[in-house]
Write a structure and sequence with these properties.
Alpha-Beta Plaits, 38 strands, alpha/beta, Ubiquitin-like (UB roll), binds iron/sulfur cluster
Length: 893
């Protein structure tokens, strides 16, 4: 600690505190054009100069550290005169702003210093770039603060903006040297967010009313499971602009293209605004009373005729915790069945199952903040720069700072360019590869003996079991050089702390659960659990997929991930009803039973089964076999379009209150910032009303989402300390057992949730049945891309489709040449299960014999092609491995 005086105020300061930071703490505003708290200060604009008594110079406050005894004047006559001079020079070389930008810092300073009339009014039309659907560039207004360059380098790690030429000719331009759309821009909007002059700005400022007239509210991104906080500006009842929240511990003040810009779906003209019933094959709009009475009477009839287990209900990763809680309560209390599930089944149920069975808690062990604390990150089967972009950007920045990266992925994903080791394995061979890493760690004695002694069992069994899983043996199966496997194992074990993140490249296989177990073995062997910078961390795909499952939308568990047997009396007491004890069906089993004629009714909330489930023919056959299919969504999705009986239109994430749970167990508020259109209702209101009509109103007598949350706290001890008031500013990570508990950033610090010691698992490798042969010589991997979100319900209705207009089939240049396939020409991809037609994209990141495609577009119907393979334990579909062939078609896209 030291003491200085700033503008006659005493100022105690911490080591390495700058004059700017201390002044802000004291409430003194020092102007600055190149400063942004997300960036390393570099003192470039010289506007934050201050006078330090006893020196003959003016120092930049953003880069000058406080020293004991300093006496500082931030607004002396000399300082202010120099600032005015600097601003006058900038005003002379900068065009007059467009109206929406008048509140930006540069113009605010000009007004403060009485220089607004000195702006040079000439716009150079050659410097206007209107190519990008979200970001407008007008370099006539550039003041060369270079914040766009710095934020693209230091936060996003994309290095798009460059300073071109020298002297008077100096220009900031994208790396294309031409338009932003043609550049390597990933449309995160960080440059527009930081630009103080409006040279780079959001287009919405021109298409919607200016943000100065907007009301700003903090909420949570409705897209991926990273769970970034957003500041949403609403004007005239519409979202005008979204900006990042600077002190958000998840995003660190950054957003991706979806969170920042993809909100036009809210006002899409094809929103369904009244309930509908299908009659004679046609949809008819009806009142809510009629729709609910109809659906409830059909549901009741099905239960009376076929029993409660003839009904299935699906919760939604896009809905709130509160919505999902009452969804599964409805299934158990009103219908009397455990047939309830959600889309975690098709993504991370294997992670939850493996982590729960080995460590006692089926969720990420650590937090995103551990990315900055670790020395090595193992990224397995997760293309995080596309699918979890803010985590991906944080990993990139960690790598740029010297953190070692190990990437395990069949494709050369972006993070592979930053990796020390890229294990480019064959799809479906995670288990032998991870076993070989464990074998190396054991055979080379680079395990953590102390940790093993106190926290781990079954070491000898695993050691014996892994005898045959040598890197050489794994190499034969995985196609990865044995020495590379050893190198990765040594790096992970020796350069700690080491953390791992994994994605659907681990879970969407017939050995999904076992793949996560193998990852957990590595963490246990090396003591990389229960400490900062360590852990096993599944990256969740959808905003609330973790929450949907945690709330009990799972046939085998209740809220808080407890088994029905363990918590029967606790829940029965609160729910005023006994619980069904018969094992429930998961989503995939529901499809099987529907085909067998045993499942008669299904209520699908926020889930487009027909578009996303694999083996589309079978899925459609299952859905056609139902007597009643209730679909609840914002839009008439593919499931509803073809097969729905009743449609309930519900609010989107910006039109409702409640909470989401992100991939690091953080519960965060979402807030209603705009009104839902027409007769659209909240999910929980629809479910509660259905319960009331079916005679259970007393058990669903909720007034608001917070009311539901308070019930959740009573049945889930690990969330007992979380209430809406505590979530007002920032989220809390469970376990959080009482109202003074700050929440839990790191699980399993001293003991595992399952006990003092965790057991290593010996996992035998099993080959997928989706093997390639002469007829189907390629392996198709499916997944998502940056601009798309899952089944397209939201992103298809935004300008993201300009940035990424198709589902492409990515193919290696060698295979494309051999088959005579041109880039962007249309091809037919055929499997044992079906076919789809889509444009090919020739990509160097693909290896020979492997293909990749997303499944976002209803037209492409890629899930015609994916097969019926499932995880051995939890039925998660094998989306990542399908044997296919590729045929040319004669049509261009
Ligand atoms: Fe939203 Fe995920 Fe992007 Fe964050 S990373 S802005 S949560 S989509």
């Amino acid at each position: 600690m030291g003491r200085a005086i700033i503008n006659n105020q005493d100022c105690d300061f911490a080591p390495r505190e700058t004059i700017l930071d201390a002044s802000r703490r004291l409430g003194i505003e020092i102007p600055g054009l190149c400063y942004d708290e997300r960036l390393k200060p570099f003192g470039g604009c010289r506007l934050c100069i201050v006078e330090v008594e006893g020196t003959n110079r003016l120092d930049a406050a953003c880069t000058t550290l406080l020293e004991d005894g300093m006496i500082i004047h931030t607004h002396s006559g000399q300082v202010e005169s120099q600032r005015r001079g600097l601003l006058r020079i900038l005003a002379h070389s900068c065009a007059e702003p467009d109206t929406p930008q008048w509140e930006l810092p540069f113009y605010r300073y000009l007004r403060t210093y009485g220089l607004e009339d000195e702006l040079n009014p000439d716009h150079d039309p050659r410097l206007l770039d209107d190519s990008h659907p979200y970001i407008r560039v007008d370099m006539s207004q550039c003041i060369h603060c270079n914040r766009c360059v710095a934020i693209c380098d230091q936060v996003q790690g994309q290095h798009v903006w460059k300073v071109w030429f020298r002297g008077h000719a100096t220009r900031v331009r994208p790396d294309s040297g031409d338009s932003l759309l043609a550049s390597s821009c990933v449309s995160c909007g960080a440059c527009a967010d930081t630009c103080p002059s409006g040279a780079i700005s959001d287009r919405t400022l021109y298409t919607s009313p200016p943000s100065s007239g907007a009301v700003w509210t903090k909420t949570t991104c409705p897209y991926c499971g990273v769970g970034c906080q957003l500041n949403a500006g609403v004007a005239n009842g519409r979202i005008a602009q979204i900006r990042p929240v600077l002190d958000d511990p998840v995003s660190n003040g950054h957003l991706c293209v979806k969170g920042r810009y993809a909100f036009d779906f809210v006002t899409s003209p094809d929103r369904i605004t009244s309930p509908m019933i299908r009659e004679d094959g046609q949809w008819r709009s009806v009142s809510w009373d009629e729709a609910i009475d109809y659906a409830a009477s059909r549901l009741k009839a099905s239960i009376e005729k076929n029993g409660p287990d003839s009904v299935g209900i699906l919760g939604s990763a896009r809905a709130t915790n509160e919505d999902n809680y009452i969804t599964q309560k409805f299934a158990r209390v009103v219908v009397g069945t455990n047939n309830v599930d959600c889309c975690a089944r098709v993504c991370h149920t294997p992670s939850a199952a493996a982590l729960k069975s080995m460590l006692g808690t089926g969720a990420a062990t650590n937090s995103f903040n551990d990315i900055e604390k670790t020395s090595t990150i193992l990224v397995c089967g997760a293309n995080s720069t596309e699918n979890h972009p803010i985590v991906g950007a944080r990993i990139k920045q960690a790598a740029l700072r010297g953190c070692k990266l190990i990437v395990i992925d069949p494709r050369r994903i972006e993070l592979a360019d930053y990796a020390s080791v890229h294990l480019q394995l064959k799809p479906g061979t995670n288990v032998p590869l991870l076993n070989a890493m464990a074998q190396t760690i054991i055979s080379e004695n680079i395990f953590d003996a102390e940790f093993l002694r106190h926290r781990v069992t079954s070491f000898d069994e695993l050691k014996h079991f892994l005898g045959t899983y040598t890197p050489e043996a794994a190499s034969e199966i995985c196609g990865v050089d044995a020495d590379l496997i050893r190198k990765a194992a040594r790096l992970y074990a020796s350069n700690g702390p080491a953390m791992m993140v994994h994605g659907l490249g681990v879970t969407e296989h017939i050995q999904g659960v076992e793949g996560v177990m193998c990852l957990t073995n590595l963490a246990l062997l090396t003591g990389n659990l229960g400490k900062p910078g360590t852990g096993v961390n599944p990256l969740r795909g959808q905003n609330n997929v973790q929450g949907a499952a945690q709330m009990g939308c799972d046939p085998g568990i209740l809220t808080g991930s407890v088994s029905i047997g363990d918590a029967f009396s606790r829940f029965s007491k609160v729910w005023l009803a006994p619980l069904p004890r018969k094992a429930g069906l998961n989503l995939m089993q529901m499809m099987d039973r529907a085909i067998e004629g045993k499942l008669k009714a299904l209520w699908a909330i926020g889930y487009d089964i027909a578009l996303t489930n694999p083996h589309r023919d079978e899925t459609v056959r299952a859905l056609r076999s139902l007597d009643l299919l209730i679909v609840q969504d914002m839009f008439l999705n593919e499931t509803a379009k073809e097969l729905g009986t009743v449609f309930f239109p519900v609010a989107c994430g910006f039109e409702r209150d409640g909470t989401f749970m992100n991939g690091e167990r953080r519960i965060q508020r979402i807030r209603r910032i705009v009104d839902a259109p027409g007769q659209v209702r909240q999910d929980w209101e629809v479910i509660a009303r259905m319960a009331e009509v079916l005679g259970h109103g007393h058990q669903f007598n909720y007034r608001s989402p917070s009311n539901i949350w308070d019930e959740i706290r009573t049945v889930w001890p690990d969330a007992a300390g979380i209430n809406y008031a505590r979530l007002e500013n920032q989220g809390l990570q469970w376990p959080c057992v009482n109202e003074t508990d700050p929440g839990t950033e790191i699980l399993h610090r001293d003991v595992f949730a399952s006990g003092q010691k965790a057991a290593l698992r010996s996992v035998t490798y099993r080959r997928t049945t989706e093997s390639s042969n002469d007829e189907f010589p390629f392996v198709l991997i499916t997944g998502r891309v940056l601009e798309q979100f899952n089944a397209g319900t939201m992103t298809l209705r935004t300008p993201n489709t300009i940035l990424h207009p198709f589902d492409y089939l990515d193919i290696s240049p060698e295979d494309a040449a051999e088959l005579g396939i041109r880039d962007r020409s249309r091809v037919r991809v055929v499997s044992r299960h079906g076919a789809a037609t889509l444009p090919a994209r020739v990509c160097k990141s693909m290896r020979r014999g492997e293909l990749f495609a997303s499944f976002h577009m209803p037209d492409a119907r890629l899930n015609n092609v994916t097969g019926s393979g499932r995880d051995r334990f939890v039925d998660t579909p094998e989306y990542k491995v399908t044997a296919v062939r590729v045929e040319q078609t004669d049509r261009d896209p």
